[in-house]
Amino acid sequence: MSAIAASSPSPAPLLAVEALEQSFGGVMALAGVSFQVPAGLIYAVIGPNGAGKTTLFNALCGFYAPSSGSIRFDGHELRGLPTHAIAALGISRTFQNLQLFFNMTVLENVMVGCHLRAKTGLLAAALRLPQVRREERRLREWARETLALCELADRAEQPAGTLPYGLMKRIEIARALAARPRLLLLDEPAAGLNDTETLALRELIARIRATGVTVLLVEHHMPLVMSVSDRLLVLDYGSVLAEGTPADIQADPRVVAAYLGGAVHYAV
Question: Which candidate, 14, 72, 168, 228, has a CA 20 to 30 Å from the CA of 40?
Answer without folding.
Answer: 168
